[in-house]
Design a protein that fits this description.
The complex is a heterodimer of chains A (95) and B (488). Chain A is mostly helical and 95 residues long. Chain A has three helices and no strands. Classes of the chains: A mainly alpha (95), B alpha/beta (488).
Chain lengths: 95, 488
């Protein structure tokens, strides 16, 4: 797979990032170099190998429901760049 | 008594005996920070007043203190949440974010009577191997101010090496505790995945991240881990285990212990001086009765690409939460909601973070998922199996931490792939969820510290610490301090 500027535009859009023209050229070249290197994995035959997400066997952990206080709303909102004491404020999303 | 020359346990003992007050210790550390940190830039936030207040409160309870670390000043990497104290991940995008809660490890350390001096500089979102990608400027290596301290826990390693803090809490996703420990001549450990709660650690790659200590020696490391380890219901990946006996289990007895030397870790690309110093560790342990066996670890060329695919994929997902809405910083000008996200993220993240987010988005994107992400998860299984085979032949593995000693500032930033390749000895440990320890084992001709890595099977912390302790009983590399740091 070759990474070109079109692909970089696509993944930048997926990532909610904007790249300026010069930055995009450099990023494309670097990603191309990294992907070319990563392709060394193709030398290893992994036919039939189960993809491993967790190194430890993970199973569901169940417990009784328990009522505990949740975080204080004012404290949670305090870290936000824009809030009105009740909610996070963002530009109008739906007309 | 020169306080900064003491280990954390020695200082803890002196505090307990009343030879030193906690306030004196805290003040000595704060004075050291005031003198040295202009040059080193290891701290992002110094919480001096809080530290002195806490010192007074702790002093009142010193008689009843249980923990050997009671009252000992320490500092915390800036990606670990501290209630009401700025936690920035060294990123512009988090601004002056002060979390509404403490991370689980911060709670556990507080229970042990720890005293925090502040928050430590790092690579932005822990992405980097040099601590140069910080929004707050690069950290310098106390052994040579023209060189990097390693990363991403570079501030943590520099603070301990320079005598500004008796120990530090860092995080390790692909070597971020072990490699800076190596470059700065301190002892550091990444515990078994799941042994320390990640609750309150701002996630980079959740399946690989683990919190651990950077400190003066193996005994300090054991004491800190005894305080940190334990199952936490707030972290679904934390594991039940036999915790709390690491310090009491340090005997220095390594008779019959089998040390494995993976020959594939000592080949091309490894600096000659580093190789000699690391292999000398085997000789010291052999003289104490350990056995040394050579074995093959035939997956070395796959570890870095596998790591970067998985880490980038998880990062691209984890970092989607930084959008200028819920916390931190927001761009000034934007048109509509989608543009707010874009402008905030574009202006708020640095180049290395963007590179990893984009790489992650690529390997997860439709049409490439199988070829890259799924393939990496398969290779991860192969790497895990290679470790399983190795541990059938030995109790622990001895390898270098990094192929060379600390590079000069700026050298790695220009070539990201080269920087990634320098993680070759550390990343496999995270992929397999194993414990890994880094300890000083020599100096090169330039006077820079060299580190040796010990890798153990799951929950092999006790074996690693015992081997490191045995080595440190017979050597003094861990006791050497950089010149120019005299502040007592």
């Amino acid at each position: 797979m070759n990474i070109d500027t079109e692909m970089v535009d696509y993944i930048a859009e997926l990532s909610r990032l904007e790249l300026q023209t010069g930055e995009k050229q450099a990023m494309t070249a670097q990603l191309e170099q990294i992907i070319a290197y990563i392709n060394v994995l193709n030398k290893l035959d992994t036919t039939g190998v189960e993809p491993m997400s967790h190194v430890f066997p993970v199973k569901n952990v169940l417990r009784e429901d328990e009522v505990v206080p949740s975080q204080d709303r004012a404290q949670l909102l305090a870290g936000s760049p824009a809030e009105d004491k009740e909610a996070f404020l963002v530009p109008k999303a739906v007309e | 008594m020169v306080l900064r020359e003491l280990t954390a346990l020695e200082l803890g003992a002196a505090i307990k005996k009343g030879e030193v007050s906690i306030k004196e210790a805290a003040q000595a550390a704060l004075d050291a920070v005031a003198v040295q940190d202009q040059a080193l830039n290891a701290f992002i936030t110094v919480t001096g007043e809080r530290a002195l207040d806490r010192a007074e409160k702790l002093q009142a309870g010193v008689k009843d203190a249980q923990s050997p670390l009671y009252g000992v000043p320490m500092a915390i990497k800036d990606n670990i949440c501290t209630k009401g104290v700025k936690t920035s991940c060294a990123s512009k995008i988090l601004g002056d974010f002060a979390p509404p809660y403490d991370a689980a490890v911060v709670d556990r350390l507080a229970e042990a009577g720890a005293l925090s001096l502040g928050k430590l500089n790092m690579d932005e979102f822990a992405m980097g191997s040099t601590s140069e990608t910080s929004f707050y400027g690069p950290v310098k290596n106390p052994w040579d101010l023209d060189r990097v301290p390693g990363g991403s826990s570079g501030g943590a390693a520099a603070a301990v090496a320079a005598g500004m803090s008796w120990y530090a809490i860092g995080s390790d996703t692909g070597g971020s505790i072990r490699q800076p420990a190596s470059y700065c001549g301190v002892t550091g450990m990444k515990p078994t995945y799941g042994a320390v709660s990640r609750y309150g650690l701002i996630a980079y790659a959740s399946s690989l991240d683990q919190i651990g200590p950077l400190c003066r020696d193996a005994a300090d490391c054991a004491a800190i881990l005894d305080a940190l380890q334990g199952k936490d219901p707030k972290d679904g990946t934390s594991l039940d285990g036999q915790y709390g006996n690491l310090l009491s289990g340090l005997t220095g007895d390594v008779r019959g212990m089998k040390i494995g030397l993976p020959v594939d870790c000592y080949g091309d690309g490894l600096d000659g001086e580093v190789k000699t110093a690391v292999l000398a560790v085997a000789d010291v342990l052999k003289a104490r009765g350990a056995e040394v066996v050579e074995l093959s670890f035939p997956v070395m060329e796959y570890v870095v690409p596998t790591y970067y695919i998985i880490a980038a994929a998880e990062a691209s997902s984890n970092l989607s939460r930084f959008d200028g809405v819920k916390y931190g910083w927001r761009a000034q000008e934007y048109e509509g909601l989608a543009d707010l996200y874009r402008k905030t993220r574009t202006q708020g993240f640095g180049a290395e973070v963007k590179r990893r987010i984009l790489l992650g988005a690529f390997v997860l994107s439709s049409g490439y998922y199988d070829a890259y992400y799924k393939k990496a998860l398969q290779v991860k299984a192969v790497i895990k199996e290679a470790f399983d085979k190795a541990f059938q032949q030995c109790d622990l593995l001895l390898t270098p931490v990094a192929p060379a000693t600390a590079p000069r500032l700026g050298e790695s930033l220009s070539d990201p792939l080269k920087m990634y390749l320098s993680d070759v000895y550390t990343v496999s440990v995270n992929l397999a969820g194993l414990p890994g320890l880094s300890m000083p084992c020599g100096f090169d001709a330039k006077g820079l510290p060299i580190g040796a890595q010990l890798i153990g099977p799951h929950f092999g912390e006790g074996t690693l610490l015992n081997a490191a302790h045995a080595f440190q009983l017979d050597t003094d590399y861990h006791k050497r301090a950089p010149k120019g740091g005299d502040l007592a």
